[in-house]
Write a structure and sequence with these properties.
Shape: elongated
Number of helices: 11
Helix content: 40-55%
Strand content: 25-35%
CATH architecture of one domain: 3-Layer(aba) Sandwich
Structural class: alpha/beta
Order of helices and strands: HHHEEHEHHEHEEEHEHEHEEEH
């Protein structure tokens, strides 16, 4: 199992030298373990280039099974740890940007006050990417909308409002609420959802076709573009809580909601640390804003 862990670390750090330092091995020991692993499998797993280290085509086919073995080993270790009392473990999360930025830092801090040796691996992505991560075991669970991702267990922990974002100089900024039809008339800056989009669904329900001029993944880039007068947008209310952009946020008529859920395959099959953190999220859901 150590050889598989070494392989994972090399790919994470894109370097034999950095992986050796992180794991406390010499570089020659790391190279020998990879060579031994390749000999056992009968294929070359890694290739080196000026850009670093990457998987060979054969390695790409095999690596998902290696990841699966590593996660199973992690679960085995953490189950043994749970018998002794949770002391160590890794929680792997895939989350949309608004959740990872505005909710998770404080939740991580509070959870680690109780379990200081727990580590977190957080990956940000759109809905489609997070669903794929859950499906292939890259993350233990996702924090995303409950309205997307068939075949998964979902537990809603909070419902956030999607709001209109307009430049301060825009005529719509003077309204108390912005009719969704008015947003459809302006150039629209759409946040990419990766298979599902609350803005597009809300326009569809209203029988409207928005004038989508830009498709952007990053919330902050969208706010900068709104500030520059390039269009209007619809984003989570969480994004508006910490921003210095010269934009105005308004509720939409009718109101657009996003049910944020914990999304996973089987909770009982997750690493113990992740099960604990899911329980912690549920216990603290009323404090989420």
């Amino acid at each position: 199992m150590n050889r598989l862990l070494v392989l994972e670390k090399i790919l994470q750090m894109n370097s034999f030298t950095k992986a050796a330092a992180a794991l406390g091995y010499t570089q020659s020991s790391v190279s020998q373990m990879v060579t031994s692993l390749e000999k056992d499998f009968g294929i070359q797993l890694l290739k080196r280039s000026r850009q670093g280290v990457s998987l060979t085509p054969e390695g790409q086919k095999l690596y998902p099974y290696i990841e699966q073995s590593l996660r199973q080993y992690q679960t085995l270790q953490e189950t043994a740890g749970a018998i002794r009392g949770l002391k160590t473990g890794t929680v792997r999360i895939g989350a949309i940007t608004s959740v990872s930025c505005y909710w998770l830092p404080d939740l991580f801090k509070r959870f680690q006050e109780k379990y200081p040796a727990i580590e977190f691996v957080l990956q940000q992505g759109d809905y489609g990417t997070i669903v794929n991560w859950i499906r292939n075991g890259t993350v233990d669970f996702g924090l995303m909308t409950a309205d997307y991702g068939d075949g998964f267990a979902k537990q809603i922990i909070h419902t956030t409002e999607m709001k209109a974002f307009v430049a301060k100089s825009h005529p719509l900024a003077k309204l108390e609420k912005i009719p969704i039809a008015a947003l459809a008339e302006d150039p629209f800056i759409l946040v990419e959802g990766g298979g599902y989009s609350e803005p597009l669904e809300s326009f569809k329900e209203a029988g409207l076709q928005p004038n989508v001029r830009y498709r952007i993944q990053d919330d902050y880039t969208i706010m900068a573009m709104v500030e520059a007068g390039l269009g209007v947008s619809m984003l989570s209310e969480l994004v508006a809580t910490r921003t210095d952009f010269n934009v105005v946020t308004k509720s939409i008529d009718p109101v657009v909601k996003r049910p944020v859920a914990i999304v996973y395959r089987e909770k009982e099959a997750l690493p113990i640390a992740s099960q604990y953190f899911i329980d912690f999220l549920v216990a603290n859901q009323n404090e989420l804003i």
